[in-house]
Amino acid sequence: MAVDTRTLNRVTTSQTRQERKQRTRQALLDAASRPLTDRTFAGLSLREVTKDAGIVPTAFYRHFDSMDDLGIALVERAMRSLRTMIREARQNPATYDDAIRASVHTLHTHVRANEADFRFLTRERYSGTGPVQAAIATELRLFASELAIDLGRFEVLSTWSSEDLRMMADLIVTAMLGIVMEMVDVRSPDADADEEIAAKARKQLRLIVLGVTSWRSR
Amino acid sequence: MAVDTRTLNRVTTSQTRQERKQRTRQALLDAASRPLTDRTFAGLSLREVTKDAGIVPTAFYRHFDSMDDLGIALVERAMRSLRTMIREARQNPATYDDAIRASVHTLHTHVRANEADFRFLTRERYSGTGPVQAAIATELRLFASELAIDLGRFEVLSTWSSEDLRMMADLIVTAMLGIVMEMVDVRSPDADADEEIAAKARKQLRLIVLGVTSWRSR
DNA sequence: CTTGTTGGTGTACGGCTGTTCACTCAAATC
DNA sequence: GATTTGAGTGAACAGCCGTACACCAACAAG
């Protein structure tokens, strides 16, 4: 279970100081990620994390100021997953129905490939107040803004006010985060259950997009 | 800050045993509710709650088997708030646009009147695994089912499959829980900010409803 | 080759945690 | 009026928590 970094470091000779430090830093992040499947970040203890990372509690401070500091590092890592996904989804600006199909497929693939990151984001998003939640809120707001800009590029939406575009983007983000939660909370994820959730996602997006076509602003 | 139940009980003479027990039970629930503004339920300790309730830690077990048990009692209390709201909203089966306006108004009023309950529900909903989250998930699923049935009574939706109705109900519930989160997370809630959020809620619902009118199932 | 830097160690502390146990004493029951 | 019941008490426990401190040993820089 617990990775013995000391042994690991001893056998792998001739590594620069920076390499070693980065390696244990990663070990700390990994050790913190693992239990988040069934517990909140707030429920982690510094001692537990350091033990799993294979270092002594006091050595923690060589890498992070506090657990909150580590938490923010986790947010950044998870957001990198999300941004990678968005970049891929942005590649194919097809028609609406194609875009929906492609987007949901991209979402599904990335969520399954980076379950831990997405679970972390969606779970921690609402869990009370704290630096971690603040960081997530900021990133997600930024993300919704970018989506609003993307939406504005569609012809039907070219006349919409930025406020309305933002409203629509928020609805989409909220709905899709709900979908992510469902995917990530399935106990034994099989292809059938996944397809069912994906179908639901497509329908919800289709419902929203259909609303757009018959929208008359104010 | 901390209510001294002992003193309180001493001055108020001649109370039956049941009354006294219920009174401290309530004190425990209240003491548990208070810190939930800025912390997760999982972050509460038995000792802290009993201290705030004015009893000794060991007396806790006279009322609840565990903190999780208390948590479930909190869920039940919060769901009573939600159900009261729904019952009121169900009273006025007006046309779509009126229904949206009335529903959002009802939502806004009840959330502001029972902030603690709604904050608890929306916050705890996603926070990891546990009996509390399971209880919330069950109640919310039940709630979405009822909404799906209500939706089916509208003429435009009479031909929809129950599966599609459920999909739509889930979208509405998710979107409105997002709205509740926004309301409940505003630091200093003034009328203007509230109206802005309410306007957003109305638009999102309108967008969804508009989608319905131009929906062609499969 | 010497010296300074630094990631990791081990001990120790005070404080908080859930739970046990034997107890009191007032209300409820007989 | 005597007896039972049960909510609340208070001391004690083993265990975990974050963090301060002095120390070591290996790498980096001079």
- What is the CATH class designation of the largest domain in chain A? Mainly Alpha
Strand content of chain A: under 5%
Share in helix of chain A: over 70%
CATH architecture of the largest domain in chain A: Orthogonal Bundle
Q: What is the count of structural domains of chain A?
A: 2
Q: In terms of per-residue confidence, which ranges of chain A show pLDDT below 50 for 5 or more consecutive residues?
A: 1-13
Number of helices of chain A: 9
SSE order of chain A, one letter for each helix or strand: HHHHHHHHH
CATH topology of the largest domain in chain A: Tetracycline Repressor, domain 2
Shape of chain A: elongated
Instruction: Outline the biggest β-sheet of chain A.
Output: none
Give the helix/strand class of chain A.
mainly alpha
Plain-language structure description:
The structure is a homodimer. By secondary structure, chain A is mainly α. The first copy, chain A, folds into 2 domains: about 5-65, Orthogonal Bundle (Arc Repressor Mutant, subunit A), CATH 1.10.10.60; about 75-215, Tetracycline Repressor, domain 2 (Orthogonal Bundle). Helices cover about 70% and strands about 0% of the residues of chain A. The first copy, chain A, contains 9 helices and no strands. The first copy, chain A, has helices at about 5-10, 15-35, 45-55, 65-90, 95-115, 115-125, 130-150, 160-185, 190-215. In chain A, helix 5 packs antiparallel against helix 9. The radius of gyration of chain A is 21 Å and the shape is elongated. The termini of chain A are far apart. Mean pLDDT of chain A is about 90; it is low at about 1-15. Chains A and B meet through helix 6, helix 8 and helix 9 of A and helix 6, helix 8 and helix 9 of B. Chain A binds a DNA duplex (30 and 30 nucleotides) through helix 2 and helix 3.
